[in-house]
Amino acid sequence: MKKLIAAASLCVASFSVQAAITVPKYDVNAGKQIAETVCAACHGLTGESIVPAQPNLGGQNVKYLYKQLVNFKAGYRKNGIMQSQVANLSQQDLANVAGYYASQQPWGVGYGNPATSQEASKLFLGGDKKRGVIACAGCHGPDAKGNIFAAFPRLGGQHSEYISTQLKLFRAAGRDDDISSDDQKRVNDAAKEGEKGMMQTVASRLSDRDIRILSEYISAVH
């Protein structure tokens, strides 16, 4: 419990930033129409991707989805495909799509790796004090369902390949590379100016093996 409290304290600094995200009133049916033509090829019409490199979106936190779409459009999160896909969408369109996918049934569960699940579980739930690794559960919850209020995403059952890639990008500061802005509230990994973002800080202490076993474990959490 003490480890979870300590991990949760790291999240507090970004709560005010994340909680301030306001999603415009959205139209699920309008979002579905956009998803059919723009998003479904990669993420599936119901938000369950058949490509491990592309994230599942169905049932995800609407604040998180909206924030990511806004950040892609603004360039605070960089991905050539995503930036081109949202380039012609309005803020209302982004809200509609986020609302649509959030309204879908959560995705299924992966299989994980039994050989490393116990070790990964300890890291996910309790971190590693000796190495300064913060527990993932402090922000994403012990059941990996995320935090709706703080816009922290649901992770449980997500593709392990996708999770691994994102952790490595955070570790390399690639999720918001070359970002310098006075408006830190809009940076994808929220932080004070001149400091590492929360996820960059956490990921910087993870080894390749940590990332692998955590990704496999998270993909099987339900």
UniProtKB/TrEMBL annotation:
<keyword id="KW-0249">Electron transport</keyword>
<feature type="domain" description="Cytochrome c">
    <location>
        <begin position="26"/>
        <end position="105"/>
    </location>
</feature>
<keyword id="KW-0813">Transport</keyword>
<keyword id="KW-0349">Heme</keyword>
<dbReference type="InterPro" id="IPR050597">
    <property type="entry name" value="Cytochrome_c_Oxidase_Subunit"/>
</dbReference>
<feature type="domain" description="Cytochrome c">
    <location>
        <begin position="115"/>
        <end position="222"/>
    </location>
</feature>
<protein>
    <submittedName>
        <fullName>C-type cytochrome</fullName>
    </submittedName>
</protein>
<keyword id="KW-0479">Metal-binding</keyword>
<keyword id="KW-0408">Iron</keyword>
<dbReference type="Pfam" id="PF00034">
    <property type="entry name" value="Cytochrom_C"/>
</dbReference>
<keyword id="KW-0574">Periplasm</keyword>
<dbReference type="InterPro" id="IPR036909">
    <property type="entry name" value="Cyt_c-like_dom_sf"/>
</dbReference>
<dbReference type="InterPro" id="IPR009056">
    <property type="entry name" value="Cyt_c-like_dom"/>
</dbReference>
<keyword id="KW-0732">Signal</keyword>
<feature type="signal peptide">
    <location>
        <begin position="1"/>
        <end position="19"/>
    </location>
</feature>
<dbReference type="InterPro" id="IPR024167">
    <property type="entry name" value="Cytochrome_c4-like"/>
</dbReference>
